[in-house]
Amino acid sequence: MDRKEFLSSIGFSAASLFVATCVGSCKKDSVSGPTVDFTIDLTLYPALNNAGGYVYLNGVIIAKTSSANLIAVAAACSHEGANVQYQNNNNQFYCPRHGAKFNTSGAVTQGPASTPLKQYTVTVNGNSVRING
Ligand code: FES
What we know:
The chain is an alpha+beta fold. Helices cover 12% and strands 30% of the residues. The protein has 2 domains: 1-27, no CATH class; 31-132, Rieske Iron-sulfur Protein. It contains 2 helices and 10 strands, in the order H-H-E-E-E-E-E-E-E-E-E-E. A 4-stranded antiparallel β-sheet has the order 5-6-7-8, with no helix packed on it. The chain has a 3-stranded antiparallel β-sheet with strand order 1-10-9, with no helix packed on it. It has a 3-stranded antiparallel β-sheet with strand order 2-3-4, with no helix packed on it. The longest helix has 9 residues, at 14-22.
């Protein structure tokens, strides 16, 4: 009996190998944020001067909250990758594609997403803002 016959005799096929490798890695709800480390000059992003303003840079959404903090999470929704938006009135990130919501730390507060958005460290030094994580 050769290897192919042996594998076939125990019910193993190329299809079962695909299923076995796909179980853990083919889930739709597994989008994660990029690893980044960049610095911006706030004077070039006037949207970040006002509460509720936000910009997308390098796969990250950077937003200014009503308490004047700058926060940053992965821009791509963890459900199917649409860009989330910052909603200052609810102090949350919202995905317009299917309605998922995330708090300012990126935690899911409403599905269909079930995986948090990656949160980044934001360090402000005058007009220089470093985003990394
Ligand atoms: S892509 Fe965001 S909720 Fe579906």
